[in-house]
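so my prof wants the structure for this chain in the tokens format not the other one, which i didnt know existed until like an hour ago. anyway here's the sequence
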Amino acid sequence: MENYSFFDIIREELERRACLKGQQEIILIALETKFGNVSDELRERIKSLKEEQTIMQAAREILTAETIKEYMAKLEQLSRA
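here's what i got, hopefully its the right format
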């Protein structure tokens, strides 16, 4: 087992958070590109996603949603799962 220092643990957590933030920003860019303006409510919901699997599924749902309303419904189902 590797010997992690306190700073290694902090660095890994900061890297994880930066990666999540980047993934959330990519989802927002994709939503804006496909549907136009993204509401503050949806923007906050995307930013509240913390699990990598949920973020990846949220990104996939952009490809199949016909409307922003449909996407929001799919996102709601993801948050309940």
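also thought this was worth mentioning. Residues 6-80 form one domain.
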